[in-house]
Amino acid sequence: MAVRLLYPPRCPLCDRVRPLKESPFSLVCGDCRGKLPWVTEPACMKCGKPVGSPEREFCEDCERMRHLFDQGRAAFTYSGSMRKSVYRMKFQNRRDYLDFYAEAMVRASEGYLSYWQPEVTVPIPMHWKKRAARGYNQAELLAERISCLTGIPCERKLLRCVRYTGDQKKLSRNERLQNLRGSFEVSMPPKRRRILLVDDVYTTGSTMDEAAGVLRAAGARQLFFLVLCTGKGKKSLHDTKSVLY
User: Fold this and answer.
1) pTM attached to this predicted model
2) Buried b vs exposed e over 133-162: b needs ≥16 C-beta within 10 Å?
3) Torsion angle, alpha carbons of 182, 75, 230, 227, to 10
4) Which one of 4, 39, 58, 158 has the fewest CB atoms closer than 10 angstroms to its CB?
5) pLDDT digits (tens, 9 = 90+) for 105-117
6) Residues contacting residue 213 through CB under 8 Å, at least 6 positions apart
7) Which of 89, 114, 110 is nearest to 101 (CA)?
8) Of 51-65, 106-120, 155-169, where does mean pLDDT reach its minimum?
C-alpha cells in the first residue's frame, strides 16, 4: 500500500492519477472510459479487424492471403489514445498499464476463448537484444496475466526468437515476411495442441503467421491469437503507397 501511495495508479489512456481501487478497469477515468476504442462487430472472421460492413466476412488482408493461424481477436483498435498508451507502456516503462490491458483482452474475447478452448498461452518472444534494451517483453507479461485471469497455463519458453529483426514499422507486408523468416524456433515439441498466441499489437499478421507456422510444424494443431490492439486496414500515405498497419 505504501508503494501505491508513493506511486498512485494512473489512467492507462490519459495517464492522470486515479483513486486507489482494486479493479484495473476502475483505473480508467470517466472521460476516457467512454472513448475506449473497442473492436465491435462487424469484424473479420479470421483476424478480427473491423470490416465496416456486415456483408463482409473478411478484411482485405485476409481475403487476399492465407494465414497460418486459425483465428484471432483484439480488444481495441490501434488508434488515438490507445496508440499513445501502448507507446508509453513500451518505451516509458509503463508496466502498470498491463493489468488493465490483460483484463480488457479477456473481457473482449470471452466468447471466443470458450469456443477455442486453448490449452496453453504462448507469448510472442522478443530477441534478447530488444529485451535487454527495454527490460521486459510486454507480450510475456500479458500472457502471464491472462493466464492468471483465465486459468489457462502459460508457457513462456516454448517459442523463442533466435534472430534479431530490427524495427518493422515502415516495412510492407512482404518485407515484414522476409524480415521475420527464420526468426522463431520452438524449444521442444508442444505438449498441448491448441495454442493461444499473445501479443500487444496485430498489424499485417506476419508475426503471427511466422510463429504459427513454426508451432504447427512442431506439432500444434490449432493456433489462435489474442492481442490488445489491431490495425484498422489500409492507410494512404502522401507518397501514394499503401501499407497495412
Assistant:
1) 0.87
2) eeeebbbbbbbbbbbeebebebbbebbbbe
3) -10
4) 4
5) 999 999 999 999 9
6) 68
7) 89
8) 155-169
